[in-house]
């Protein structure tokens, strides 16, 4: 049986994505994103699913940096899941929101609900956890007036009550999850793909004026549509960056090799992080 790892514990949005995308495979939770990625690299699991980007908060930088600097695993698929953040409390909590002493959740979830927290719970202490599932677990074991921000699955898993539904600030809240595996043939997602995408890692020569403009031009004149371009520090000194570029088409034997050749002639280094299908889930 295929072993699938995900950012846990139970009740996270990553677990929700895994349950929606895959059938009854052997599923294992990990406390952190690096632990999940390492498990794939070390062959302890076959597939790893980790958050990649949120529509409100942007890129999950830990995922990108770990894949670039530590463990280079290919992205085999992308799962897009709608995110619904709820305020979760213990079943015996009967006060109003002003009585809540603490709010627990992942930093991205807290940021996604900033306006709600500011308006209704401005005096509550904010406590960041490794995941929304962990936040729900903390609340379930506490006897204080505290709350978690998480999903319906977290409430069910830890016996919590949804005090307020859909407290995120913006309605069109989605998260992209990367499916990582050494063998793409074992990834069987039970939905039809909506699109295909190729992700590239591009490093620019440090002393080449106008290099970024020429990088973008290499895609533009070939009419290759970019859905994302983002810079991240190389961690080798101030001013040194790499770029993640998402192209809305699968890797082919004509356009992409010619782009790579053109960029390498400029002194750029180009690495394919993955060419993969995109699956949009409805939960």
Largest sheet: 10 strands, mixed
Mean pLDDT rating: 90
Classified in CATH, the superfamily of the largest domain is Periplasmic binding protein-like II
State the end-to-end CA separation. 25 Å
How many domains, as an integer?
A: 3
From the 3D coordinates, which CATH architecture of the largest domain would you assign?
Answer: 3-Layer(aba) Sandwich
Structural class of the helix and strand makeup? alpha/beta
Low-confidence stretches: none
**Annotated CATH topology of the largest domain:** D-Maltodextrin-Binding Protein, domain 2
Oligomerization state:
single chain
> How many beta-strand elements?
15
The H-and-E topology, N to C, reads as EHEHEEHEEEHHEHEHEEEHEEHE
Number of helices: 9
The percentage of residues in β strands lies in 25-35%
The radius of gyration computed from the alpha-carbon positions, rounded to a whole number of angstroms, is 21 Å
Shape: globular
Approximate helicity band: 25-40%
Keywords: Amino-acid biosynthesis, Aromatic amino acid biosynthesis, Lyase, Phenylalanine biosynthesis
Site (Essential for prephenate dehydratase activity): 175
EC number: 4.2.1.51
Pathway: Amino-acid biosynthesis; L-phenylalanine biosynthesis; phenylpyruvate from prephenate: step 1/1
Describe this structure in words.
The chain is of the alpha/beta class and 283 residues long. The chain is built from 9 helices and 15 strands. It folds into 3 domains: 95 residues, D-Maltodextrin-Binding Protein, domain 2 (3-Layer(aba) Sandwich), CATH 3.40.190.10; 79 residues, D-Maltodextrin-Binding Protein, domain 2, CATH 3.40.190.10; 82 residues, Alpha-Beta Plaits. 27% of the residues lie in helices and 33% in strands. The strands form 2 sheets. Strands 1, 2, 3, 4, 5, 11, 12, 13, 14 and 15 form a 10-stranded mixed beta sheet that branches. It has a 5-stranded mixed beta sheet with strand order 8-7-9-6-10. Helix 1 links the parallel strand 1 and strand 2. It starts with a strand and ends with a strand.
């Amino acid at each position: 049986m295929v072993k699938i790892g995900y950012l846990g514990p139970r009740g996270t949005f990553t677990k929700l994505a895994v349950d929606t995308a895959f059938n009854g495979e052997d599923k294992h939770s990990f406390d952190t994103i690096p632990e999940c990625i390492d498990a794939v690299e070390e062959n302890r699991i076959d597939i790893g699913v980790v958050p990649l980007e949120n529509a409100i908060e942007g890129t999950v930088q830990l995922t990108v940096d770990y894949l670039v600097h530590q463990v280079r695993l290919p992205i085999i698929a992308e799962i897009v899941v709608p995110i619904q953040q709820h305020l979760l409390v213990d079943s015996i909590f009967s006060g109003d929101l002003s009585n809540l002493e603490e709010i627990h959740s992942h930093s991205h979830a807290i940021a996604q609900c900033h306006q709600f927290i500011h308006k209704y719970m401005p005096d509550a202490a904010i406590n960041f956890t490794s995941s929304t599932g962990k936040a729900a677990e903390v609340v379930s074991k506490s006897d204080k007036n505290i709350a978690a921000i998480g999903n319906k699955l977290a409430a069910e898993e830890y016996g919590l009550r949804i005090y307020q539904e859909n407290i995120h600030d913006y309605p069109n809240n989605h998260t992209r999850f990367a499916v990582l595996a050494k063998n793409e043939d074992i990834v069987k997602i039970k939905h039809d793909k909506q699109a295909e995408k190729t992700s590239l890692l591009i490093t620019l020569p440090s002393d080449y004026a106008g290099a970024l403009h020429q990088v973008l031009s290499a895609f533009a004149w070939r009419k290759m549509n970019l859905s994302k371009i983002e810079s991240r520090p190389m961690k080798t000194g101030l001013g040194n960056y790499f770029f993640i570029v998402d192209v809305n088409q699968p890797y082919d034997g004509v356009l992409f090799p010619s782009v790579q050749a053109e960029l390498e002639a400029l002194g750029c280094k180009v690495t394919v992080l993955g060419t993969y299908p995109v699956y949009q889930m409805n939960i």
